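Thread: quick sanity check before group meeting

JM: Hey all, I'm pulling together slides for Thursday and realized we never actually wrote out the predicted structure for the chain we discussed last week. Dropping the sequence here so it's in one place. If anyone has concerns about the input, flag it before I start.
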Amino acid sequence: MIVARPQSFRRKVNAAMEFRLSEVELPPLYCPLESAVHPHVRHIEKRAVEWVESSGMCASEREKAWVVATHSADFFARFAPVADDDRLLAAVLWVYWGFGFDDARCDSGPLSGRPAQFNALAGQVQRACETDSAVADDRFIGALQDIMRRFRSFAPPTQVHRFAQAHRAWLSGVSWQIGNQAAGRMPGLDEFLAMRLLSAGGHPTFALLELATGAEVPDRDLHHPSVQALTEMAIMVASLDNDRHSLHKELSHGQADQNIYTVLMAERGVPLQEAVDQANVLRDRILLRFLHLHDRVRPTAGTDLATYLQGLRYGVRGNNEWGMRVPRYLSLGHWPEELEHTLPAWADEPSDRRPGPVEQAPCIAWWWDSDVG
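JM (edit): ok, ran it. Output follows.
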């Protein structure tokens, strides 16, 4: 069921969440997955920051500081800890670019509430992702073309094409999100989950695994229902975790109109704390299914597929280790500062062990189908 609300509803939700945020207890995360980070992450970060500074994609020193404060090198170095340095650098550059584009053109800025204008730009951006001959005057396009040239210099066309299609999926999800923002429309849970798979940017992020590691997963393996389900579940868990990590940032910027908490609050009429608890249950049930299915698929996987599957595991864990520390989230919207590393709080047990599909979410029920695994 779709739940629509006027613009005033968004303001009411933001006000309610901000008022209660200090009283909300975020439960520890259950994440029994391996932790790893690339050994040369600091050197790669230095090279990446130099690129950000010279790329021309940042309009001001403040904007550049926010991009650098994403620590995108630390983020993706946890997804691909065994990658070649230059391959990893290229992947990291896209993550920095993606965060910069998201902040300036998606979450805020002049196009964040203007879907027609954003869609026109998204078309130009996507074409620049697909061909070096595309020309446009937006400052993010030249930087993206430089990244894509790097990908083409070392990766076979199949992997570059997969990334470009994943990039298109992300932009389509962002277009949906911006359309909702412009209309003051709150989606229902099932629609939100289906489109959050796209708008969160998980598809291009995990498509970077092949580019960074050099793995060439055969089509028959990558597109097998079980592997597609594992990919989607990894994206969904990471997306829900990011809604948690970014809660303070979004509230401080007045951007909390669409996340798992506001969706549950609107659809089920529950307060923020209950929405937090329900979201954690949903997330843990998806993660348990991911673990179960992974353990069935991994033993018969070839070398390249096994590398990809391990990258999914590293990514879910690494996304949390990064998200619990990065100034982008912990600075609460203030000018980003280096913060001391904090120790993540991990749960020993999942919040819910019920098997079977999540209720009221038919769009993801197929992850539990018997023919998936």
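AS: nice. The two ends are 29 Å apart (CA to CA). Residues 157-183 form the longest helix (27 residues).
JM: adding both to the slides.
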